[in-house]
Amino acid sequence: MNKKKFYPNYFTYPAVILFIIFYCMPIIAGFALSFTNWHIKRLYTPDFIGLKNFIKLFKDAYFILALKNTVLFAVLTTIGIVVIGLLLALLLNCAVKAKAFFRTIFYLPAVLSLIVIGIMFKAVFKMDGGILNQILTSLGLTALTKDWLGNPDTAMYCVIFVQIWKWSGFAMAIYLAGLQGISEDFYEAATTDGASAWQKFKNITVPLLAPAFTVVITMNIIGGFKVFEQVYVMTNGGPGFATQVLNTYIYNEFSKGSLGRSSAMSLILFAMISVIAVIVNKFLKSREVQM
Amino acid sequence: MASAKFKSMKHKKQVQSVSLTIITLTVSLVIIVPLLIVIFGSFKNTAEAQQFGMSLPSVWHFENYIHVLDKGNILQALKNSTIITAAVTFIVIAAGSLSAFVVSRKTTEYTAFVYYLFLLGMVSPIQIVTTYALLKLLNLSGTYLGVIFVETALQMPWTMFTLSGFIHNIPRELDEAAFIDGASPGRMFFFIIFPLLKPIIATAVVTTAMGAWNEFMVPLYFFNSSSKWTMPLTVYNFFGQYSSDWNYVFADLVLTALPITVLYLCCQKYVVAGATAGAVKG
Q: pTM of the full predicted structure?
């Protein structure tokens, strides 16, 4: 059968052309324009300035802080989501009543807009009468109450908490799908051999969930580096620069009109995500094969 | 004796199940409590809503919603969000399924190129600044069409991979039968393959629609006029203006989250399938 005619390339053209124009071309253009003094006032006449944008950025303490905050955010949220998502999945995989109800509730945050969630959590972390401070007060822990989002020591952790709150249920769904694929026979055989619950978890559940771990870790690392909305809504990078991440800093520079500098930051973010995604995925995939 | 032992085991299991359920319920409160405070608060007066209490409103102020609909520019935003979400979803599904079909059916240098091209899109973040300039250049800046195209490009890779994973499992014999009957490729795809894709299309539609509805960054960068703002942008702006009137803010949050929550509750099967579709392929 004539494959060429039967599966014509032109079927792919609408998707490919749209994707190249509106996704790939900006990446290529961004690469080129990172080496220019491109500015909103010189939209069509940027001058080549070599590596100046990058040299300046790496001398900019705020950029370094944004870089550190982004990495901290990506790492801590991924750990939180991987662990809590797994605990939720294991809970629901046990003999819990009203499973469907709990699954619906745990997954719900994943479909809500981050703007809605961000504003809601401003009420949770508020200084005066905020929900968290109310709970602490009612537990007799008045000493711990504080302006959670206004305090540079806690603001970042609040934003991190919101990300974990939103995505743990999503991870749970992926683990649950993985758990359903593990045959009961393994556990029965292990029980006959007198294995403890922890041994069964460590030697059966975790290795056989390896593909689910790969997906959850890769997705959340990438998502963590791309963080924007909740920071923009909850703290706008503040107090001071305490929660500034790359995407909010890029937006600030864009608003000021420094397009070249902004593109240079986007390029750095792009490079970081691509490298980390490939490394993490390769590493986790190789572990899957071993097991 | 044996039956007594069996009974006690059964009893132990029941106790275990009940205690696990209590633990799960406690954990779920972390999600339920803030949501209930928002929902109840949206019906309270300003002073009562500010206390962020778990109690039901002492008087139900349904007029909060009328106030928000009036002041929050909600209906315009609802229209904007609907236009953008519908257009993005339609283009992504139509173009994505056609392309996924060819990519999953034959392996040539070109299809390999397409595969890696979209793989790039699964990983890399959008280059927003140059996209902004591109839209200016194409005279699409600040238009629905510009935002629709950018969001379409953003959503295409996931749909492409999810659909091609599914099409892979549809037997090729069907294509061959159609070919022998003299059907054109277009006819074969739309009348034979596409109907078989129903469950995965449902998943892709729901996932794409939710992504487009909740998208914030793209409209934030590309719409400067508030008349084109989508729901998440409008609620953010409303919060900026009314941040002390939590009852109105909460009502606006409920209105923004409502369409997506209803969609989720109705199509939960397809939503969760969307989460795990990527997981199976890895």
A: 0.89
